[in-house]
Design goal:
350 residues; 13 helices; mainly alpha
Length: 350
């Protein structure tokens, strides 16, 4: 009852002062999501180290860093902040410097429009989102692809042939998989009759992973490709091009590029949960009814993250020609088949 009174008071104030309310929400939201996604990405780094160490029977990640290896994260951060900052000779300095910054800004643009769960008050779910846009599903998918531009900037500006190869591989991969990924988002929007992520979650009386199993598989593969994770990490392939677009980076700049990969992994997992796995929807849990949506949401995101880590630890890297062939010859046609299915079902049950 107390929380509902606060919400009604804030809603009344927002109606009276919409511009001040929007500015306040923007500033407070930016500060909160900065903390949430950075802490969340640190947790993902820790989870990947521990889980990969277990499934590959590697002793190091499971023993260093004191209890549960938590101190290793701090040690890594100190090392990156204190390393010498150098720029390779012949590099395009402005582009080289701005590439990690663009990558970091991109993650903030994505995070601003993604709902991070919800709170259940008096039987109603209140989504936790800074910018609840009508086209947020398309916006997030498009903003995620900007990361590829940062990858290209880093590879192009480094004056290194291996970095350049990694940059071109990233562009080729992005073009091949952004189209089927976008088609899958359109298919979900057709069934939900909305491109708003909050409304897409609320429309899932049946998870779209079951209503569109083909779209779910295509979107998941395209998402793993977009995130540049094994078996689709051709832009960094160590055995072929050293470290790809990050070869000439070190210190804090390399740390920013490395960290944004894990932030994107977290945001991509959240997007998959919102589009296909019912978001925060789930039965109320006694005692913690208010937090029930958050519990379901975090459990689903954790399962997706573990799946992505398990894929990395289990599969081998594809060649770049195999990746582009898979994208154009299989993913795109299958995504169009799924779109036709979604259009038929969406119109029939509209």
């Amino acid at each position: 009852m107390y929380l509902s009174t606060i919400i009604e008071t804030v809603s009344a104030w927002a109606a009276q002062e919409p511009k001040i309310y929007a500015l306040a929400i923007g500033l407070i939201g930016a500060a909160i999501i900065s903390g949430v996604i950075n802490i969340g990405a640190m947790a993902v780094v820790w989870l990947e180290r521990k889980f990969l160490g277990d499934i590959q029977a590697r002793f190091g990640p499971n023993r260093v860093g004191s209890r549960w290896g938590l101190l290793q994260l701090g040690a890594d951060a100190i090392k990156l902040f204190t390393k010498e900052d150098s720029i390779p000779r012949g590099a395009d300095k402005p582009v080289y410097v701005w590439a990690p910054i663009i990558a970091s800004i991109t993650t903030m643009l994505v995070a601003a429009a993604i709902p991070f769960g919800a709170l259940r008050i008096d039987g109603k779910d209140y989504p936790l989102v800074v910018a609840n846009m009508d086209i947020s599903a398309f916006y997030v998918e498009a903003a995620l692809s900007i990361t590829t531009i940062a990858v290209f900037m880093a590879g192009f500006s480094s004056n290194n042939k291996y970095s350049m190869l990694g940059a071109f591989r990233g562009i080729a991969r992005m073009i091949a998989y952004e189209v089927p990924m976008g088609v899958c988002v359109i298919a979900v929007a057709l069934m939900a009759h909305s491109l708003n992520l909050v409304e897409i979650v609320e429309s899932q009386t049946l998870w779209y992973a079951f209503a569109q199993p083909l779209g779910f598989i295509v979107f998941t593969i395209a998402l793993v490709t977009d995130l540049g994770r094994i078996p689709f990490d051709q832009s960094e392939a160590e055995e072929e091009i050293i470290a790809g677009y990050t070869t000439e980076y070190g210190g804090i700049r390399w740390g920013l590029l490395y960290f944004q990969e894990y932030i994107n992994m977290l945001l991509g997992s959240i997007l998959l949960v919102l589009l296909f796995l019912g978001g925060w929807k789930g039965p109320s849990i006694p005692v913690i009814t208010v937090l029930s949506p958050m519990v379901w949401f975090l459990m689903k995101v954790l399962i997706v993250l573990i799946f992505l880590i398990w894929v990395r630890g289990s599969l081998v890297r594809f060649r770049i020609d195999q990746v582009t062939d898979l994208g154009w010859k299989w993913m795109l046609p299958l995504s169009l088949v799924n779109l036709a299915w979604a259009a038929f079902v969406g119109l029939y049950f509209a």
